[in-house]
Design goal:
Distance between the termini: 42 Å
Mean pLDDT: 94
Strand order of the largest sheet: 1-3-2
Strand content: 15-25%
Low-confidence stretches: none
Helix content: 25-40%
Largest sheet: 3 strands, antiparallel
Number of strands: 5
Number of helices: 5
Order of helices and strands: HEHEEHHHEE
Radius of gyration: 16 Å
């Protein structure tokens, strides 16, 4: 919990960071015995590829719409294609008994070439 609170503190000041800067700043503000790494960003930020490198953009799962279709639409505003595992922290809680994450996600999207994409672009 401390890590996520400190991460939110950073993103409150700035909505995106180059990867190295984010990890360095985050490591500086958590207790010394706590480690941070980019795998811990899942559900709090998404990586966006830029010409200058990887930028991490604030995208907290708690702040997203509560309906699955609206949430997927919002996620596609950040990225037009997703890997299924990257959607897990954002869509996992919509799973019902016997549902897989993939089944839940594909109710609101399509899979093309191994990526999850909006329905409109799946031709």
């Amino acid at each position: 919990k401390i890590r996520s609170h400190k991460l939110e503190f950073l993103f409150h000041k700035q909505k995106s960071f180059p990867e190295k800067e984010l990890l360095e700043n985050w490591a500086r503000i958590v207790p010394r015995d706590m480690k941070v790494d980019k795998t811990m960003l899942a559900g709090y930020a998404v990586d966006m590829k830029h010409a200058t490198g990887v930028m991490w953009v604030h995208l907290n799962h708690v702040m997203l719409p509560g309906e699955a279709d609206e949430r997927m639409s919002t996620l596609f505003e950040y990225r037009q294609k997703w890997k299924l595992e990257d959607l897990k922290p954002y869509m996992e809680h919509f799973r019902g008994p016997g549902d897989t994450l993939k089944e839940v996600v594909l109710r609101h999207s399509r899979e093309v070439d191994g990526y999850i994409v909006p329905v409109a672009t799946a031709h």
